[in-house]
Amino acid sequence: MKKRFKVFRWKAVGPLLLFLVLLVVLWIIFADRIVRNEAESNLSETLGTQVDIASLTIREADAAVDIGGLAIADPRDPMKNLFEAGAITVDLDPIPLAEKKIVIDQVKLSGLRFLTARKTPARPADPNSPAGKLLSETRDWAKEKFQFPKLALGRIDSAKSLVLNPEQLGTVKAAQAFVGTVDSAREAFEQGLAALQLKPLVDSSAALASQLAKTDPKTLGLAGVKNSVTSVQKSIDRIKKARGKLEALEQSAKSSLGSLQNGLAEVNAARLKDYAFARGLLQLPSFDAPDIGASLFGEQSLDYFQRGLYYAKVAQKYIPPGLQPWNRPGPKRARRSGTTVEFPKEKEYPRFLLREGDVDLAIGGQAQNTFKATFANITSQPALLGRPATLSASGRIAGDSPISVDLSALSRHFGKSPKDSLQARVGGVSLPAIPFPGLPFAVNPGKSTLGLSFSLAGDKLAGSWEINSNQVTWNADSARLQSASLVESTVWRVVSGLNQLQVRAELSGTISNPSLKIRSNLDDAIADRLRGLVGEEVAKAEAKARAAVDKLVDQQVTALQAKVSDLQSQALTRLPVERSQLDGVQKQLETQLKRLAGSAAGGLKLPKL
């Protein structure tokens, strides 16, 4: 009987088909949940705050993902969400998926809301995570680099005793350090002058000229005249060399004096800082308008700039410029999980790329909303793409309280000058109350126009923050206000009558040396009223602070100025005298040289003078 050829081995194919069917069923049941959990975990770790996703559906046939109920918590306020999206549709490019890379052709967002309240507090970032460390670094940066003056509005007591420790004063430290510089300059000058040996040279040259003046050239003979001429010429040459060295020493001394005068100016500048330090010990209120602006709005302004720096640092952390290897934690193993290092190559897909996205707010009817937003070229490896990531948005968001928005952002992490920047202006937005540090009242801006810009290019910072409002109201702690000091009550009377608020803060400089300037329309009004109220008492207290500093530093600074003046006298008085003596003895020698030349005319060739 002929044996039949079997195409399928059903005993093996059956279990395999069963396994595949089981795998498909498990994918259908659990894939969405697994991807949602992984997305929440990765986004939370990257942004350093809790990220919630209500639903996630993978549409395999369309190569798309639908996300619902996305909420990103504020890392600085656990009871607030920075951003909420009702629905997000992500269209994927299926080809890069074969390389385990995500390339998004388009993203659509709808139902966006900002700065919404949370029902439950968000989980704080792990302080040991990269985002947690960056958040801690930016907080420490803000505390270290900026110290805003406090409106010390208590009773002004100009009779308060002021005890200063000399070691606390910058003038004393600067003077002590500068003494060594002055002594070194004087020692170098004296050594240089001594090395010239001018007195022996002048004395010997004058003696030679005097001796020749008493000698009759006829008695010397031709050989004697020749020897005398040679001696005179050598002396003149030594004098010329000495004069050149003397002139070089004079130039060096003038240069040193210029440096010393600059040093004295720095010492005097340190005294001004000591005046401010002593004034601070008396706890006097600051009535300068810029100080008042920084006192009232410094912390609020810095909060915005700190957030901008944090997100710029996060972008630099996860989107490194150039074709740099990307280190990320390796898979968990029983031993030595290690690190996975990806080396990107040119002309290939980035690991993640969002080509284009747009926003549809879907709040109210279409006629009410004119807001449009687009973003593009968002990638984890910008050097492969070669184009900056951009975001632009503008329009009007309708509703019970319509607001206007104009927003643009750019992130360029390739080329020689990586840069992250943001510019935003929002009109008609209701801002929360701004408390004033140390004062029993706060300002409620109401519907305002808010402007914000921030830029980080290398280590250079630039930014601005401003509020403009014509609907200001004021909130006061009535219990504290009843027991407030005269100055605090005066400030309250000034501000409580104002219904306008204009504040502008400007950030500049570098990360290591930033500068923040703040101005508001409250500054001059408060400063003028307070200066008129307690100006005389403040003047007395300031005079006391200055006198206390002068008592400790005058002796040292006076001694230091005397040393510099003495060196200046040496350089400007003694050196011209020395040069005059050299010129005089040279003329005497030249006179004798001419006399010798006349007696030996024709028999001796003399050098030209």
Give the tags.
alpha+beta; three-stranded antiparallel sheet; 11 helices; 19 strands; 47% helix
Any overview of this molecule?
- With 609 residues, the chain is of the alpha+beta class.
- Among the domains are: 26-125, no CATH class; 166-283 and 549-599, no CATH class.
- 47% of the residues lie in helices and 25% in strands.
- The chain contains eleven helices and 19 strands.
- The protein has helices spanning 10-47, 94-97, 130-145, 170-195, 198-213, 221-281, 289-318, 382-385, 478-482, 486-495, 521-599; strands at residues 51-59, 64-74, 77-92, 102-110, 113-117, 326-329, 339-342, 352-360, 372-379, 389-397, 403-412, 419-431, 434-435, 441-444, 446-457, 460-469, 473-476, 501-509, 514-520.
- Strands 1, 2, 3, 4, 5, 8, 9, 10, 11, 12, 15, 16, 18 and 19 form a 14-stranded mixed β-sheet that branches. Strands 13-14-17 form a three-stranded antiparallel β-sheet.
- β18 and β19 (514-520) form a beta hairpin.
- α4 (170-195) packs parallel to α11.
- Residues 362-366 have low confidence and may be disordered.
Strand content: 25-35%
Q: How would a textbook summarize the main sheet?
A: 14 strands, mixed
What is the helix content? 40-55%
What is the helix/strand order? HEEEHEEHHHHHEEEEHEEEEEEEEHHEEH
* Contiguous uncertain segments of 5+ residues: 362-366
Rg: 41 Å
N-C termini distance: 138 Å
Secondary-structure-derived class: alpha+beta
